[in-house]
Fold each of these.
Amino acid sequence: MAGAISQQYMLLLRPSQASFASDSCIEFRSSSSFCFSGQRSVSGWGSYFRRPVGRSGTFCRSGGSVMRVCCTIAKEVPPAAAHKAAAAPQFEEQQQQEQEQEYGSRVINFAAGPAILPANVIKKAQSELYNWRGSGMSIMEMSHRGKEFLSVIQQAEADLRDLLKIPENYEVLFLQGGATTQFSAIPLNLCTSDDTADFIVTGSWGDKAFKEAQKYCKGKVVWTGKAEKYSSIPNQSELNVTVGAKYLHICANETIHGVEYKDYPSTGNDTLLVADMSSNFCSKPVDVSKFGLIYAGAQKNIGPAGVTIVIVRKDLIGKAQPSTPIMMDYKIHSENRSLYNTPPCFAIYMCGLVFGDLLSQGGLEAIERKNVEKAELLYDAIDASEGFYKCPVEKNVRSLMNVPFTMATPEMEAQFIKEASAQGMVQLKGHRSVGGIRASIYNAMPRAGVERLVAHMKAFQARHI
Ligand SMILES: Cc1ncc(COP(=O)(O)O)c(C=O)c1O
């Protein structure tokens, strides 16, 4: 039966109509979007089921994708019904409509972090909150060493590896203490107190990382954008990396100033590249192999506050300074699979749901395309305003995630924010250290949210010139 499955039939599959197992497989190309329930392979969408055991659930795919699914058909749908379904609006449109309805009861949240999360992820968590998958308890109540939570953390790691294509020789750690704790954990793990670590300072977070590292090694700023109020990123030719430096630290996306690396610097022979990706983690593909270490607090793009992801090359683990607190020692966390002490279970669970959602949207290439489109909408509106709105950041390094802009006076900015808030668009105030306006448009911000903001910008300008 499964081998004879037709494309028309596939369009009709809904969780209530079909259940999937791994006993028979078909390959097909769907011209329209569709959903089905079953097990998704750990290798992600668009690729074959490499392993029979994937994550169970309901998944959706956009049209044009080639898929191989292994399934058993539970119920056949008559041709007339199939025809009707094929004529129905495409799934993405439906999803968009649903999301718009969803936003009827929720604000459009432009916060820099903790920030907006995907509505479907929050609903999924809500549906599982009271009784997680038949376990009779919530994630918050179960042992972190029990088989249920182990399956959660292992799946979260597998999905993150899948998303970022993390090489085998890298460890993924789920830690606590925020990205700020990594400002000290990194020099403590990678350097002796005599080693030099270089810093490119493109904003407040890079500066904080440098100041903290100085306590544990010889920190050196090799470039700073402070004089230009952190509006640019240096070219390779402007960099003079210290010979023998243990690592070069960058902040991949400065959340406050809206400055984002598009190409990463080369470090020279043995110097490692270390990046704080807190505010653009999983917003686009990254070649992890270029880095010695990547770290990110979850609360912007991938989950709630409480968990920090560290991706570190395995050969760098195990050389921590003797005084390193046990909770900062990567070796301890690596040996214990991030379960040395009680981990932030609920935050890890939520990250896992977000990773699954990103995979079901087509992975980070697809996410990047959406992010570019959203950011272009906003930057185009700023640039087309003939100076009414100004973005201080050099065009080639403007952030896809955090869009800062200013207006003629602080009073006008306050009025803009007040009026936006009255229309359900909140958290647009720039960071207290720089003022102005900042729209954070992370992965979970729907395009419709950015369009609403752009409409407000145009209407506001029309009323004030
Ligand atoms: C780029 C960047 N790095 C580090 C931090 C500090 O993160 P945490 O509050 O998780 O310590 C932030 C927080 O906003 C950030 O945006």
Amino acid sequence: MQPRNPCGTSTSLDPQRASEENPQYQRINEAWRFRRTQRERHALLNALRFAGLAPAVEHRFRTCGQDAYVYHSPSTDQYRIRSLQCGQRWCPACQHKRRSEFARWCLAAFDRDDRHPLKFITLTLRSCKLPLAEQINRLKRAFRKLRARALWRKAVSGGVAVVEVTWNAETGAWHPHIHILARADYIPQHNLARTWLSVTLSSRIVDIRAVRDRCDAIKYLGKYLGKAPLAQLADQPQALAEYITALRGARLVIRFGDMTKVEVDADITDDPHDWQPIGSLAAIILAARDGSTEALKLLNRLDRQIPWDADSLCPDQDYAPP
Ligand SMILES: [Zn+2]
């Protein structure tokens, strides 16, 4: 049965963009979209003036979450919110979808029935004062050289790598590193460290461990995708601006070896095809404020679910490092 409109009015079922010019709705949409990341949003807005990005990019970020409309799928009894999304990799609100799509791709690519052993590998560079963009390029060049070395070619058939950047507030230095999920036979850690030193000429810090549960490993890898050091950089707008510009256009996911040939079904999201509009999110929030228990119940449900969340892919597993 079609759920009753929790706004209690017929006007909220009017065209979905009807609320976009309403300043009150805009404030409500923004507060909802960034309800757990307002501090990060303000830090990013503060940093964007140093980043030299096109005004359209900033506008997209400022309007991320606007025109929010709630939909219901009768066949699955799921709810979802559709709204404008900036899609920026540093946007804390857009990260869930990006990570989840990555995790879904990995789950399909690393077939669950594949008995080939997996390894989780982390490679780091020695900290230095070079601009972040140059450090990321150096890291990726070193990883490419590593993949050409005999030690790697003999043991590793393919995999996926994610670049992560952290910031050390004490030293004011960037720490880019690569996390890799690889189909690989046993590699002695000291051999990998020695080979990594020979390609970086400065760093021998590596970590390699066998993966016991590939679902956990994929979730763990996805955690690093677009994980911006926003908390550490909240009071450092210029460093945050450097992060934003360094990552703009940079390829942060690297498929290599036999994983470059893997094709996965484009329709792997299991997205229901019967979404029906319920009402604008802002109208539902206002109805809840006015005491509608139905609207409040719906908001609680929407708040609990993170659409496309990777954790829902493997509901029987606890989230833990491999
Ligand atoms: Zn966004």
